[in-house]
Amino acid sequence: MSIRQASVTAPVNIATLKYWGKRDKNLNLPTNSSISVTLSQRDLRTLTTASASPTFAEDKLWLNNKPESLDTPRTQACLADLRALRLQLEESDPQLAPMSTWKLHIVSENNFPTAAGLASSAAGFAALIYAVAKLYELPQSHTELSKIARRGSGSACRSLFGGFVAWEMGSQTDGSDSQAVEVAPLEHWPSLRAAILVVSDAKKDTPSTSGMQLTVQTSDLFQRRIEDVVPRRFDEMKKAIVAKDFAKFAELTMKDSNQFHATCLDSYPPIFYLNDTSRRIIKLVEQVNADGVVAAYTFDAGPNAVIYYDEKDESKVLGEIYKYFSGVDGWNGKKFDDVAEEQIPGVSRVILTSIGGGPQVTSESLIDEAGLPKSAKSV
Amino acid sequence: MSIRQASVTAPVNIATLKYWGKRDKNLNLPTNSSISVTLSQRDLRTLTTASASPTFAEDKLWLNNKPESLDTPRTQACLADLRALRLQLEESDPQLAPMSTWKLHIVSENNFPTAAGLASSAAGFAALIYAVAKLYELPQSHTELSKIARRGSGSACRSLFGGFVAWEMGSQTDGSDSQAVEVAPLEHWPSLRAAILVVSDAKKDTPSTSGMQLTVQTSDLFQRRIEDVVPRRFDEMKKAIVAKDFAKFAELTMKDSNQFHATCLDSYPPIFYLNDTSRRIIKLVEQVNADGVVAAYTFDAGPNAVIYYDEKDESKVLGEIYKYFSGVDGWNGKKFDDVAEEQIPGVSRVILTSIGGGPQVTSESLIDEAGLPKSAKSV
């Protein structure tokens, strides 16, 4: 019997209303709803091939050409959920191959350096879940699949959609209503752009999983954020997106990034993700926005900046960024006139990208006929 | 008629429960109560001579040998209050010289560089108010005088006492109950020490007066702090001081510093006072405290660190600080064995000091017989 396989790509998403805090650690249920923008897979994506065969002896994963364990509780939970759905299909149609009982070989590659700290786990889990779902020919909607991805990595649920995505926190204890939904598709606002400034930092502070637990347990301000501030912003941000009101969207995005980092600082011991370079980037964006808001910064659990803007303001926004970072890689031939004498140190590269679509099936496969990773050619 | 004069010194105080936010800008009424430690005047003090004479043509001030304006609303409010109290005395005893109608010459000097960003305005206003009160022979208590100092610079009210001082926010709209009181005198815990790490920063962020207004107006987390967190901490910190419970005192101090900076970051646009050097100092103190809390960091509206510890832990605390800052000035001959190969950059000097007493009358005068500043000898 031959090997069955399916290949997909999935995008990175960057939250504009931040997910920080779990109310259930096993199920990855968040303390608050969140919103993100999906980035273009031209620049940032995970490509994953999932294959199944009765000849495979065990579940195996290769990540960026290295064998990795699938034996983590989170990944196991995802695979168990997917196999259970496949089993339902098989039970209703005895003609189907009993793939739910077969072992899986999964090969996954990012087209960007994992070390850049660019939320690769979100794209990774979204691609994993979507590839296996396609392999299993599951009929479930993206929102249904998002609940499975959520168990792998919370923010992965948002990478099941393109455009603007909301992760509704839900209220059920079993997580059955904690899921991603589309706020607006890519086509609603295709001119939205993102410039990522990759900030090099000697050491990263606390990993996000333990960091968010620390915040939940020790920040006296955190309750206010999740009870009062985020629910209000969640509605306001969705409205701003639907209305394509960039200034409002940007203000909420910047405020929410700041507040997330404020609750990190209010944790005990305090967690710092922003450094002096991040701080200078914030001031730079304030400078860009001096005559009207055309750019929005946001920072995840690390010092990298993502700056959103609309294509029509490109020369203004990128021109000002270029001034202070003209010397780094990633401008792809773009040039602007002004270069400041004193460049801002601490940024290793810029990634120019844009809003993008959701996961896609692809004909590019990473697995050969023997069910093993093809050579390292695409890395 | 000869010139009358009085000279006093007043101390710097460093808040352990932070004052940040005014509910009345004119009266300097705070949004929350605060607590501070008064530092020793051996190391940090303002010396002020106040003189009055019917021959003086106008109120005049010299600050660190430079003429400065007394014509600010805050200083005028302080002088008006003091003159009103003097006038009451004169009205009850016609023998008294009518100093309330005479102009004042005031000369003031710090024994530390003003530019170091060390809350010099608190010591300055406390010394000004106390010197004029002594000149006027006012019978008012230090708590009564603290209300006048408060109008000059909020935190100045706490410099009217030594030891541990509480500024009770009060509830009256006229500010009549917003005043400083002693929590415990110097003698209660004389072994408390403070190491100040003066952090050099290119540019200071927002001045504190406008910064705190911005936080009050824009931080969504700020209300939680002042309504819920600070009232609880105010009681807990007073208890920890009375019990000489250093670990508890330290934890509250560090948490409150972090939370103050968190509300700054939650302001819009965000305010940053901590920089990467401050952040490394926080990590260093965490390292010192790994086996038990013996040191407490706190940061005001700037990157300078003040680290409190008890004398008995000096070798542990200073030894660890010395490791990373052995090359800077201010160790006064103190030496420790370990010096790290990689020193932490960004600190220009260390000031080793301790808890200290309140304002004092001194025989040292800064004004000559003509009512003018003596030569620059003491600078």
Automatic annotation (TrEMBL), chains A, B:
Organism: Lodderomyces beijingensis
Gene3D superfamilies: 3.30.230.10, GHMP kinase, C-terminal domain
SUPFAM superfamilies: GHMP Kinase, C-terminal domain, Ribosomal protein S5 domain 2-like
Enzyme Commission number(s) of this protein: 4.1.1.33
Enzyme class, first EC level, given as a word: lyase
Family: Belongs to the diphosphomevalonate decarboxylase family.
Keywords: ATP-binding, Lipid biosynthesis, Lipid metabolism, Lyase, Nucleotide-binding, Steroid biosynthesis, Steroid metabolism, Sterol biosynthesis, Sterol metabolism
Pathway this chain belongs to: Isoprenoid biosynthesis; isopentenyl diphosphate biosynthesis via mevalonate pathway; isopentenyl diphosphate from (R)-mevalonate: step 3/3
InterPro entries, per database record: GHMP_kinase_C_sf, Mev_decarb, Mev_diP_decarb, MVD-like_N, Mvd1_C, Ribosomal_Su5_D2-typ_SF, Ribsml_uS5_D2-typ_fold_subgr
Protein name: Diphosphomevalonate decarboxylase
Mvd1 C-terminal domain: residues covered: 195-361
Stored Pfam families: MDD_C, MVD-like_N
Residue intervals of the Diphosphomevalonate decarboxylase-like N-terminal domain: 10-180
Enzymatic reactions: (R)-5-diphosphomevalonate + ATP = isopentenyl diphosphate + ADP + phosphate + CO2
